[in-house]
Amino acid sequence: MSATEDELPQGLPDRLPVLPLRDTVTYPDTLTPLAVGQERSIQLVNDVLAGDRMLVMLGSKDPDLDTPGPDQLHRIGVAGVVARMLKVPDGSLRILVQAGQRVQIDEWEGEEPYLVAKVSELPDEVEEGPELTALMRNVQQTFTRIIDEVPYLPEELQMAVANVEEPSSLAHLIAGALRIKVEEKQALLEEVDVGKRLRMLSETLARELDIVAIGSKIQNQVMSEMESSQREYVLRQQLKAIQEELGEKDPAEAEIDDLREQLSALELPEDVRKQADRELSRLEKLPQAAAEHGVIRTYLEWIASLPWGKRTEDNLDLAHARLVLDEDHYDIAKVKERILEFLAVRKLKPDATGSSIMCFVGPPGVGKTSLGKSIARAMGRTFERISAGGVRDEAEIRGHRRTYIGAMPGTIIRALRDAGAANPLFMIDEIDKMGADYRGDPASAMLEVLDPEQNATFRDHYLDVPFDLSGVLFITTANTLDTIPGPLRDRMEIIQLSGYTEEEKLQIAKRYLVPRQIERSGLKKSQVSFSDTGLKAIISEYTREAGVRGLEREIASVCRKVALSVAEGTHAKKVAVSGPKVRELLGRPRFQPEMKRRTREPGVATGLAWTPVGGDVLFVEATAMPGKGRLTITGQLGDVMKESAQAAMSYVRGHADALPDGWFGEHDVHIHVPAGAIPKDGPSAGITMATALMSLVSGRAVRDDVAMTGELTLTGQVLPIGGLKEKALAAQRAGVKRVLAPSRNEPDAEDFPDALRENLEFVWVSEIGDVFDAALVRGMLASKT
To answer: What region holds the Lon N-terminal domain (predicted)?
Structure first.
């Protein structure tokens, strides 16, 4: 159905039906196609067509509402006449509305069966002048530029805009053609001042022009990249054809063929072979410019670089192994015996698997890492050292998955590649220094690596195929066992490496340290020599350690000073490094005996302590002052050590028979362990504290050649302690002649070197009374009344 211009009603009725619009704004003097689907809107259109065909089109504030009420509609819209109507098979209508004048809602008259309102015309306000003309021209020019760039605007619209002379019609035509927000369209409709409306439209067009320019730039870049890719593809095809004519191979194909040859030459397990063939097939189909091409190529290169099935032959000659171990390390007979046992089992049963993991535990500088190198040399295996100290990321052990950029295998697989054999010796250094954080727990990842029953199918995250680690001989090192998790410690055979005696240090220095430092300093044996007295002076007066690392530094310092004098020509003859010469070169001795000075007064006892870097000597001091029986404990002590002090105090209070009644109630007692900046803890200072207290209250000084260790109970029994060998070595370094130790630790003395047993007198005590008898000087030296 259509209506001619003569049939359109003249004038605006006061009362008109209202058709809500969703996501649409209609402007005056435009033709607007609409789809009508709501029942009330269909009835409205039918009733309008039966009458004067006029209605009011209002925009909805909320486009999600199906049947908005008066409050959900804007107050300003456009009156129009239904020019055509078409029924669609689904029951909805398609109408074409000829928009007329802008109207505003004065009053709502009804909502059923559809919205009806009183309306009044809202005419434009036009202020003629050059500004309005300039705005029109600016809008026309900007819109013309947008038409040239935007494909959804037809070119005929450019001619139509150029021929519009009336400013209001120009604004309506352009606003209706633009794809801008509904809110902006509604604001343009509601603005009655034509000048302001054109200014608003000019700002909107300027913004749209910027967006169009950015879109065009992006499109040009995309097209340029596409053209470049197509050009590169054509050139590559031409290069390929030329190479075929010349009989040459494409570099990418040659690379793939090289990988295929490397993989075919390996003895890969069946599942690994399938994975490699699958990835190689993918690589052949991918263009070289594809991002995944490099990822797959790197993966296959890693597969090809690993020692699948490659093994070195073990040297199982026990005499040769014993000779190598003795050449590189002095003493440590227990460790050497364990290595020879391992080789003997391999010699009798070559196919033996599941050998235990050895963990060397001891203070720094005793030769744990160098011992691993000696074992590898004795067995004829390749040696790889892996530092676990400070590792906090689980991916350091297992690797990263290939989905990550820059992914690579873990340290185990990398070490295998570097070793070039599937049965190397891996030295995992400082396993007690591994940490854990939000990235994972590397100690837990080590569980599979160090378990002989599981590591035959170790799976790295990057490779994602099993690799047999059962042929690898793992040796770990640690300074202390406390920080190693229990499950990991359970998988290892603990071998303790204690500190060295002075005699052992002397032999190590003569055999290994001195020749090495003379060579490193550029000297010759004819230019410098070290006497035993000189080396003993360095050991006792300039070092105080369990190992020999500090000793080697001091020897290196002496060699450097001799090298300086030789280089300057001040020494023409051989320099003999004796005791006085050491003091001349190194200066004042750093360590001097202080036992006699520290224990002259009653109330001071010498104890022995264990630390991760070896044994140490500590002094326990006790003093009394007038007070009310309070006990003060200082020296940065842990809870266990404080409890030991309280137990010692309780025992002494209960057994100090020589004191007058009420002495403890009239005196405060202060126990102090010097070196307060160093945290100290443990129960083994119990008898030392009790001896210091008994010395204080009895006035009997503690012998200056005695040191002690042992845990004390309230009943006076002495319980066993750990680390006795390290403590005994510390006592020897401090010049102690007699060591008091729990009787239940007496079997530990079997592992002590002969020199240690000869130089120290061990007194085995089971009760605190035995300690007092052996440690306190006879007779009353002072009165404690």
So the answer is: 16-209
pLDDT value at position 443?
Answer: 81
The stretches in the chain having pLDDT less than 50 are 1-9, 781-785
pLDDT at 249: 62
Cite the annotated binding site for ATP by residue number.
362-369
Please give the pLDDT value at position 571: 67
**Are the C-beta atoms of 738 and 705 separated by less than 8 Å?**
yes
CATH of segment(s) 318-496: 3.40.50.300
Contacts 24+ apart (CB under 8 A), 490-494: 491/357, 491/447, 491/450, 491/451, 492/356, 492/357, 492/358, 492/359, 492/450, 493/356, 493/357, 493/358, 493/359, 494/359, 494/361
What tokens appear for 504 in the block? 């052992």
Contact 311, 421 (CB under 8 A): yes
Amino acid at the residue 741: A
Q: pTM to 2 decimals?
A: 0.62
State the pLDDT at residue 644. Answer: 92
Query: Would you say the C-alpha torsion 689, 694, 700, 705 has a positive or negative sign?
Result: negative
Q: What are phi and psi of 19, to 5 degrees?
A: -105, 110
- So what's the pLDDT on residue 689? 93
DSSP 110: E
Instruction: Give domain limits for the chain.
Output: 5-121, 251-305, 318-496, 502-586, 595-775
The pLDDT assigned to 713 comes to 92
The set of residues, in sequence order, having a beta carbon less than 8 Å from that of 411 and lying 6+ positions away, is 386, 396, 397
Architecture of domain 595-775: 2-Layer Sandwich (3.30)
What is d(CA 90, CA 432) in angstroms, rounded to the nearest whole number?
Answer: 78
| pLDDT of the residue at 215 | 76
Query: What value, to the nearest 5°, has the Cα angle with vertex 470 and ends 466 and 473?
Result: 130
pLDDT computed for residue 243 by the predictor: 66
Catalytic residues: 684, 727
- Cα distance between residue 432 and residue 443, in whole Å: 9
**5-121 topology per CATH:** 2.30.130
What pLDDT is attached to residue 658?
67
Contact 616, 729 (CB under 8 A): no
Task: Tell me the C-alpha distance between 634 and 625, whole Å.
Answer: 16
The residues near 667 (Cβ < 8 Å, ≥ 6 apart) are 624, 625, 626, 627, 629
Q: Say whether the peptide bond before residue 13 is cis (omega within 30 degrees of 0).
A: no
